[in-house]
Specification:
With 339 residues, this protein is of the alpha/beta class. It contains 10 helices and 16 strands. Strands 1-8-2-3-7-4-6-5-9-10-11 form an 11-stranded mixed beta sheet, sandwiched between helices. A 5-stranded parallel beta sheet has the order 14-13-15-12-16, with helices on one face. The protein is globular, with a radius of gyration of 20 Å. Helix content is 28%, strand content 20%. A hairpin with a 5-residue loop joins strand 9 and strand 10. The relative contact order is 0.15. Helix 1 packs across helix 6. It binds adenosine monophosphate and magnesium ion. Magnesium ion binds next to loops.
């Protein structure tokens, strides 16, 4: 299969590009497009054969469910069995935006989308390209991150192409994504509500929006589920967001003293830090500020992979709320340095 790439204006995508992409989708094709978080790999969510192609292209295990991108609350309600008050408040406040809500699904959602679960993950993306595409197709789009399974999420069209060239039909290239980290996933089917994946919308904002309507918990420990059962949220499994280059993390800049540097190392310093003496041949990136760090993180890790470096040493950012999502991804991307 030949993968086509079409350049589109991120703010005002041309009607012909959207019509072209919608046509590919309605023929059960796969189209990668930018959301505000990362690039998604879209297919018609209501068509099991189209969704099956996503799993094939990504090499994604069938138990790992997909996020369904909808036009708005009205469409979301058609695909859920129950629409609780909390969903109404949260969707009203944060949609369109990087908050994914897990709700009980209606019979319109095929099994293959949810990996057999009775729940479905829904969100409304913000960028005009993503929204225009969903409107044009007139159907929700199942769209996981547009990367091979267990690889880094793509934040640029080039990342999608290097991972999925020849495996998907079309990429709409609208430039780099704005947040650069995956959406917050919030499970509304139980009590307390549970954050299954930390992301751009934090627990404080969610709690504030709910104003005491429901309790919110950020559970990490039990999302993998008991042995032998379906994981509650595979996105929370370890080694989910890892680069190909071996990556090691240290908690503080002083811990760099423990490193025996190979020939071609990268050093990624997150958070404010005064650097000690370091080897000359070092691919050094400093990201002192959380917002820019989130936007650039995956791109930098992709770059390290492309340069075939020997190792990526990561100095972790401080354990503070504004660094929460980045810390979550880094714990999965890198092993702690021994000693
Ligand atoms: P991706 O779009 O590749 O970032 O992956 C989507 C992630 O959303 C999955 O790995 C899960 O963690 C989460 N997810 C999707 N559907 C559900 C669901 N029904 N229940 C729980 N988590 C879900
Ligand atoms: Mg993913």
């Amino acid at each position: 299969m030949k993968t086509r790439v079409i350049q589109v204006d991120p703010q005002q995508p041309s009607a012909s590009a959207l019509a072209d992409a919608a046509d590919v989708l309605s023929r059960r094709g796969l189209v990668a497009f930018a959301t505000e978080t990362v690039y998604g790999l879209g297919a018609l969510a209501t068509d099991p054969a189209a969704v099956d192609r996503i799993y094939h292209a990504k090499g994604r295990p069938p138990f790992n469910p997909l996020i369904v991108h909808v036009e708005g609350i009205t469409q979301a309600r058609q695909f859920t069995a129950v629409w609780p008050k909390a969903a109404d408040r949260l969707a009203g406040t944060f949609w369109p935006g990087p908050l994914t809500l897990v709700l009980n699904r209606s019979s319109l959602i095929p099994d293959i989308v949810t990996g057999g679960r009775e729940t479905v993950a829904l969100r409304v993306p913000l960028p005009p390209v993503a929204r225009g595409l969903i409107e044009r197709v007139g159907q929700p789009l199942a769209a996981p991150s547009a990367n091979r399974s267990n690889r880094l999420s793509p934040t640029r069209a080039e990342h999608v192409l290097s991972d999925l060239d020849g495996r998907i039909d079309l990429i709409l290239d609208s430039g780099p994504t704005s947040f650069g980290l995956e959406s917050t996933v919030l499970d509304l089917t139980g009590s307390p509500l549970r954050i299954l994946r930390p992301g751009p919308i934090g627990p404080e904002e969610i709690a504030q929006c709910l104003g005491g309507l429901d309790q919110v918990a950020s559970t990490r420990e039990d999302v993998a589920g008991p042995p032998g059962e379906l994981p509650a949220s595979p996105g929370m499994l370890n080694v989910h967001y890892a680069p190909r280059t071996p990556a090691l993390r240290v908690d503080a800049i002083e811990d760099l003293a423990k490193i025996s540097w190979p020939e071609k190392p990268a050093l990624l310093v997150l958070g404010p830090a005064a650097l000690p003496d370091l080897p000359d041949a070092l691919h050094l990136v400093e990201l002192p500020e959380p917002e820019a760090a989130g936007q650039r993180l995956y791109s930098i890790l992709h770059e390290c992979d492309a340069l075939y470096l020997d190792v990526i040493i990561i100095v972790m950012p401080p354990d503070q709320p504004e660094w929460r999502t980045i810390r979550d991804r880094l714990v999965r991307a890198a092993r702690p340095v021994a000693g």
